[in-house]
Write a structure and sequence with these properties.
Elements: E1 23-25, E2 41-44, E3 47-49, E4 53-55, H1 64-72, E5 76-79, H2 85-98, H3 115-125, E6 129-134, E7 152-158, H4 159-168, H5 174-177, E8 185-186, H6 191-201, E9 205-209, E10 215-220, H7 221-229, E11 244-247, H8 252-261, E12 265-269, H9 276-288, E13 292-298, H10 301-307, E14 313-316, H11 326-330, H12 336-347, E15 354-357, H13 363-371, E16 376-379, H14 381-384, E17 393-396, E18 399-405, H15 410-414, E19 437-441, H16 446-464, H17 469-475, E20 478-480, H18 483-489
Parallel strand pairs: 4-5, 4-16, 5-11, 8-9, 11-12, 12-13, 13-14, 14-15, 15-16
Antiparallel strand pairs: 1-20, 2-3, 6-7, 9-10, 17-18, 18-19
């Protein structure tokens, strides 16, 4: 019987696996200019993006500020799960409210309040005006200062209206100072109709009322113009920004709460999703939520086959991240570009999008991942140095850096990230981390980093002669690169005097 076992020496007859530096895209005849390349893609079965980029679900990368910025630029931010369930719900709601056309959480004034009271109230809320409503006819249980079900709109009060009264009679009532000729609009008003109404009447805000003339929301000119500024933004059917949320495979309560709060995509967040218990739990979560469910991380064809029948997307990456030590600590992993190709071989047959998560240092790596079969890429360190990332700023040797840590690092595991690595430990001494805590150079705004990243990806599409992501996948071919070829591909035999915005020798 022992003779039937594969010999240990046979185990060393292994297939070759490659990563980004091992290959280059083969240039082809092209009429495609980079600016004409369309990077639209699907990140899950039902969620489409104009920019095939996601920010990683890491506690030093993505919270609501990053998610808002990502969605406005056409990508997707994935909230990390070291937040409490309540805090995660609040972060999701903040993203959803950020660019909403009709503001539902409206600050309102009563005609009986004094101008001083309303001035202080608007100052605390950070608004310059408020509808004046009569709540006397609204049942007590339905009254809501947020304007969910408000009373009849009597007027509008603004800072301009209040200012003269504050000089001479700050105890005067709002009814004396408000503008009582109110222009309102119904709930089904379009952005164009609302803007035309504002221009016609020279006003900056329009109360939205129901059939009974009761306040249900507010549209502002600033809100409409802001939406126009981000014409490629990732939005849901209601016009709100899209957002993803990471949940543990055994966190059904978190998944349900995130789904109820409006998350568009739930990411089953596990370092090794080719685990039977993880797969079973992920399948159950998928059955119980309305949001799309992306399962990860995996790195092999067999893992993809195990989840492709129910997953709305598959996330690929076993240890490629810059702050990940999984491969050296556990001895397990898959070079990223080979892992992406193996998973894509399976997922593409079922129309399931693939996300390449980790190991991407340059825009060229990102477009190589797409060529290998990915539909989108997820980045952590690339965005950790931006203003929108939650990591704290530190100064070392006169240079600014931002805190960045792996979700398998000691600090992240202490904050609740241990479950991602299927570890439940009480004491620090019992931890076996699979990541490090570090610092990454401060970079400025997310918009500037995304501009360089996506611009490089579009240029790669131009070299291959493809106008769209699907066409690019079909046309792209790889060539193998030697170590000498890798060296040749970087600036060499010179001293760099002025840094480029999209290149550094170490990829940081």
């Amino acid at each position: 019987m022992a003779n039937d076992r594969e010999s240990f020496s046979e185990k060393l007859r292994v297939p070759e696996s490659l990563t980004f530096d091992d290959v280059l895209l083969r240039p082809k005849e092209s009429r495609v200019e980079p600016d004409a390349a369309d990077t639209g893609t699907h990140v899950s079965r039902n969620v489409e993006l104009q920019v095939p980029v996601l920010s990683a679900a890491m506690d030093t990368v993505t919270e609501s500020e990053m998610a808002i910025a990502m969605a406005r630029e056409g990508g997707l931010g994935v909230l990390h799960r070291n937040l409490s369930v309540g805090d995660m719900v609040a972060e999701i709601e903040r993203v959803k409210r950020a660019d909403e056309l009709i503001i539902r959480d409206v600050v309102t004034a009563s005609p009986d309040q004094t101008v001083r009271e309303v001035d202080e109230m608007m100052g605390e809320a950070g608004v310059s005006g408020a509808p004046v409503v009569d709540d006397s006819g609204v049942p007590e249980g339905q009254r809501d200062d947020g304007g969910a079900v408000g009373g009849e709109v009597l007027g509008i009060i603004s800072g301009t209206d209040i200012r003269p009264f504050l000089e001479v009679g700050e105890s005067d009532e709002v009814r004396e100072a408000m503008t009582d000729e109110v222009i309102t609009a119904p709930e089904d008003v379009s952005p164009r109709e609302a803007l035309e109404l504002m221009y016609e009447h020279k006003i900056e805000r329009v109360p939205i009322v129901d059939e009974g003339d009761r306040l249900v929301g507010l549209i502002t000119m600033q809100g409409i113009l802001q939406r126009r500024e981000y014409d490629s933004a990732a939005r849901d059917g209601e016009g709100s920004l899209r957002v993803g949320a990471a949940v543990g495979p055994f966190e059904a309560d978190r998944a349900a709460a995130a789904d109820d709060a409006g998350a568009d995509v739930l990411f089953i967040d596990c370092a090794h999703a080719h685990n039977l218990d993880v797969i079973e739990s992920a399948r159950t979560i998928k059955e119980e939520v309305a949001a799309d469910v992306v399962v990860g991380n995996v790195g092999t064809r067999e893992a993809a086959e195990a989840v492709v029948d129910f997953a709305d997307g598959i996330k690929v990456g076993i240890g490629p991240g810059s702050i990940c030590t999984t491969r050296v600590v556990t001895g397990a992993g898959m070079p990223q570009i080979s892992a992406v190709a193996q998973v894509a071989d399976v997922a593409a047959l079922e129309g399931v999008p693939v996300i390449a998560d980790g190991g991407i240092r340059y825009s060229g790596d990102a477009i190589k991942a797409i060529a290998a079969g990915a539909d989108a890429v997820m980045l952590g360190s690339y965005f950790a140095g931006t203003d929108e990332a939650p990591g704290r700023v530190v100064t070392m040797n006169g240079k600014k850096y931002k805190q960045y840590r792996g979700m398998g690092s000691v600090g992240a595991m202490q904050s609740g990230g241990g479950e991602r690595y299927l570890k439940d430990v009480e004491e620090d001494d019992d931890m076996v981390p699979e990541g490090v805590e570090a610092a990454t150079p401060y970079k400025g705004t997310l918009a500037s980093e995304l501009h360089q990243l996506v611009g490089g990806m579009r240029s790669g599409m131009g070299y291959v002669g493809a106008e769209t992501i699907p066409e690019f996948k079909d046309r792209a071919e790889f060539v193998r690169v030697s170590q000498a070829g890798q060296h040749e591909g970087h600036p060499h035999d010179v001293v760099i005097t002025d840094e480029a915005p999209n290149y550094s020798p170490d990829g940081s």
